[in-house]
Fold this sequence. Notes:
It is a single chain. With 330 residues, the chain is of the alpha/beta class. It has one domain (34-319): 3-Layer(aba) Sandwich (Glycerol-3-phosphate (1)-acyltransferase), CATH 3.40.1130. Helices cover 43% and strands 12% of the residues. A 7-stranded mixed beta sheet has the order 3-6-2-8-9-1-10, sandwiched between helices. It has a two-stranded parallel ribbon with strand order 4-5. Strands 7-11 form a two-stranded parallel ribbon. Helix 4 packs across helix 5, helix 8 (164-179) packs parallel to helix 9 and helix 9 (209-217) crosses helix 12 (267-296). The longest helix is centred in the last third of the chain and has 30 residues, at 267-296. The two termini are 37 Å apart.
Amino acid sequence: MRNGLIDTGRKPAEDEAETDAGTEPTPEELVVLSRMERVAFRIAQRMNRGRTKVFWTWCQKTIGASWIHLATYNLLRIHGLENLETVPHTRPLLLVANHRSFYDMYVVSTVLFRHTRWPKRLFFPVRARFFYDSPLGLAVNFLMGWWSMYPPFFAGVDKRADKRIFDKYTMRLLAELCRQGAGHVVGFHPEGKRNLGPDPYELLRPQPGIGKLIKDIAPPVIPVFIAGLGNNLRRQVLGNWTGGELIRIHFGPPLDFSEFLSKRDHMRTYKEIAEFVMSKIAELGEQDRSLYAPLAQGGERVVTDTLETTPAVATTPVYHKGAASERRTH
């Protein structure tokens, strides 16, 4: 073993390059994309392979994580970090989180880089709209995500239903990223879109894709609940010094899917797994509510450290019924 990675006799970059070998999109999958989308995809694909991915991960760890820390350190509260140390780091790790802000996974990535020591490479599946259909989106993926907003889902980008054809490739690639690659961390939003409702504890119903991914690969899975992040970058950064809302990140214990893995491959099974995942995210949300809701009501709570441990609270997800959300992407 070398630096927490399995010693295969090759360098990590070579293992990385082999991870998605054989998972190229077919001509039929590529043809449904526009020229801009194909160019953006090919660039991001190249940036997430081999030694190139190693370099951008270094940039993400040293540059990206530093400026995000500077923009959030006064507000950031982290709970359950010890749960990340209970999973084997010789296998890929799947993080499943609620989704309320553009910046959810950027902040999570900073926490991972600054507060854990095992080698890691991050992949955050993302809706292709903006990130892959315009030069500006491509630039944002580079400047803010260091190309980690990958792979893309194209369904829902426009009115063309055939874009879902490409998403079959995206699911194959995600399966491969979750199957092999020591240090791979895949951050996934089961809701499939941002929840823009007013109540952070109401969740959107999960999409079955996360259930199929877990059923097929059975990777280690850690639930994450995120609250306090907005979607206005300027306001979010200024709030770090002017008294913005606290940013709370809760990491739960690894999930046990043994009762589902023996069931047959069926859409019903995928939905059951997805609902189970959301119930665990909701439990973390209830922990957050018990800790921080009194603050919103004018109460007081003494926080002695930004790293805290809180007990699990069993709960059932409360799903948002309004229309204040983005269109489904996968």
